[in-house]
Amino acid sequence: MPGDGQKMGLWIGAAWQKTWPNAPMIDCLGPAPYTQSVANHSGINLNRNGERFMNEDTICSYAAISFMQQPGMTIYFVWDSAYANWFDEWATFGTTMAEDNGPKPHNGADELANWEKSVEGNVFVKGNTIDEVLSQLDGIDAKTAAATITRYTGYAEEGVDREYYKHKQYLAPIKTAPFYGYKLEVSPAQLLCVTGGLRTNANMQVCDENDEPIEGLYNVGIMTGDMYGNIYNFSIPGHNLGACCNTFPYLLGKELA
Question: How far apart are CA 12 and CA 247, in angstroms?
Answer without folding.
Answer: 27
